[in-house]
Amino acid sequence: MNNYPIFIIDDDDDDLQMVKEALAQLNIENEVVIFNDGFKFLDFIRTSENKAFFILCDVNMVKVNGLELKKRIFDDEVLRLKCVPFIFMSTGRASSEVMKAYSYGVQGYFVKPTSFGKLKEMLQHIIWYWRDSQRPNV
């Protein structure tokens, strides 16, 4: 598995803590970098040389929602490949939202699990998939 950081973008502290705890229990050694605001992530990724193992982003955020954030990334030729893989995890499951996410080049859209155990299982599957997958930014 590559040792690039996992970037998590979510403005809900409880969700952030659960994801961090799930990754810790899965013994993931990658650094976990948290952004509680999509604009902060944009500022960071525009100036950073860091590559991501994967980016996990909430859709429903206050300052800039995840779909708008992903559209800004998709519209920027440099950021588009730099921000792969970009995965949404949201409570929303509206087909129009999912379609919009994929039209902006997202690599996955997952509904937030209702239990900690299911969250760990989902994250494990995401990690296994991206550990073995070839991608353009590595």
Percentage of β-strand residues = 15-25%
The count of strands amounts to: 5
What's the CATH architecture? 3-Layer(aba) Sandwich
CATH fold name, please? Answer: Rossmann fold
* Sequence stretches where pLDDT stays below 50 over 5 or more residues: none
The CATH class designation is Alpha Beta
Q: Write down the secondary-structure element order.
A: EHEHEHHEHEH
Measured distance between first and last alpha carbons: 12 Å
State the major sheet: 5 strands, parallel
Q: Number of folding domains?
A: 1
CATH superfamily: Response regulator
Q: Residue-averaged pLDDT, rounded?
A: 92
Radius of gyration: 14 Å
Structural class label: alpha/beta
Helical percent range? Answer: 40-55%
Major β-sheet strand ordering:
2-1-3-4-5
Query: How many helical elements?
Result: 6
Dominant shape: globular
